[in-house]
Write a structure and sequence with these properties.
TIM Barrel; alpha/beta; 10 helices; 304 residues; 8-stranded parallel beta sheet; 12 strands
């Protein structure tokens, strides 16, 4: 496919869905949430990405040293990040799993130091043992790319701890997800599957107000799927939970913009992030915090 070839999906508007019986969605509007994880959502919030990994897709090995990661996290907070999302396992397409023990060895020293500095920390993990250790170390939020489906102990743990959680849409796992990127209507299917995840979380005892959702741009999504999700993002608002969007440096930006190097995708990342906010994203998960915060301030001033 050419970088600008986004054919293969119907771009025409579809009815806006909301959660119905059994996790399905029906066209009934919902009011956007105004508060989540101790943050008011009267303006777009920024979650800084801090990967303490050797193999993440755009910043692997950059912050593997704990002291380097801590300094990077402090810099992101000074630049205006509302949340720092600390992860110790790469979930890029094709990534091999990391053991919870290794994951914890990477992230816990970083979380302890940043939480002690008063920074709101999210732990990016699909493993319940790592969630628990990170929360004990000072993390306040769980961000799970599998929406608490990978580890059977994850949902009960989050319910018991009463912490905010991000449920992200993905099919399969990082090693297999691209094989599952087959949709008839990607937006409606993602909405239905997220609705089921919300319902499962509530059945496990997780308060609805604790949940944010993430459509999983690039996770079991080809470039046309990611574009269609962003175009029709308002349809996910009817699920009634804050929408977190991570477009930063993603492959669809490289595909459309003709930039193979993830570290050179800042212009496209900013364009996609601002578009996502216009479409209803409440939280942006980004690598380039200072640049995103500046772009948001200008966008807000011009939109006032």
């Amino acid at each position: 496919m050419n970088p600008t070839d986004l054919t293969g999906l119907d771009p025409s508007p579809q009815p806006s869905p909301s959660r119905g019986e059994g996790g399905s969605v029906d066209p009934v509007p919902a009011s956007p949430p105004t508060f989540w994880a101790g943050l008011t959502l009267d303006r777009p919030r920024v979650m800084g990405v801090l990967n303490v990994t050797p193999d993440s897709f755009s910043d692997g090995n950059v912050h593997l040293d704990p002291d380097t990661a801590i300094q990077a996290g402090l810099a992101m907070a000074r630049a205006g990040a509302d949340i720092l999302d600390v992860g110790g396992e790469s979930t890029r397409p094709g990534a091999a799993p990391t053991s919870p023990a290794e994951e914890q060895a990477r992230v816990l020293p970083v979380i302890r130091a940043l939480a002690a500095a008063g920074i709101r920390i999210s732990i990016d993990t699909r493993n319940a043992a790592t969630m628990e250790a990170a929360l004990d170390a000072g993390a306040a939020i769980v961000n799970d790319v599998t929406a608490l489906t990978h580890d059977p102990a994850a949902a009960p743990l989050v319910a018991a701890r009463g912490c905010p959680v991000v449920l992200m849409h993905m099919r399969g796992d990082p090693a297999t997800m691209n094989a599952h990127a087959v949709y008839t209507d990607v937006v409606r299917e993602v909405a239905n599957e997220l609705a089921s995840c919300i319902a499962a979380a509530e059945r496990a005892g997780i308060a609805r107000d604790a949940i944010a959702i993430d459509p999983g741009i690039g996770f079991a999504k080809l470039a046309p799927h990611s574009v269609e999700l962003l175009r029709r993002l308002p349809e996910l608002e009817t699920l009634g939970r804050p929408i977190l969007v991570g477009v930063s440096r993603k492959s669809f930006i490289g595909r459309i913009g003709g930039e193979p190097d993830p570290k050179r995708r800042l212009p496209g990342s900013l364009a996609a992030a601002l578009f996502a906010v216009r479409q209803g994203a409440a939280i942006l998960r980004v690598h380039d915090v200072a640049e995103t915060v500046q772009a948001l301030r200008i966008w807000q001033a011009l939109s006032a």
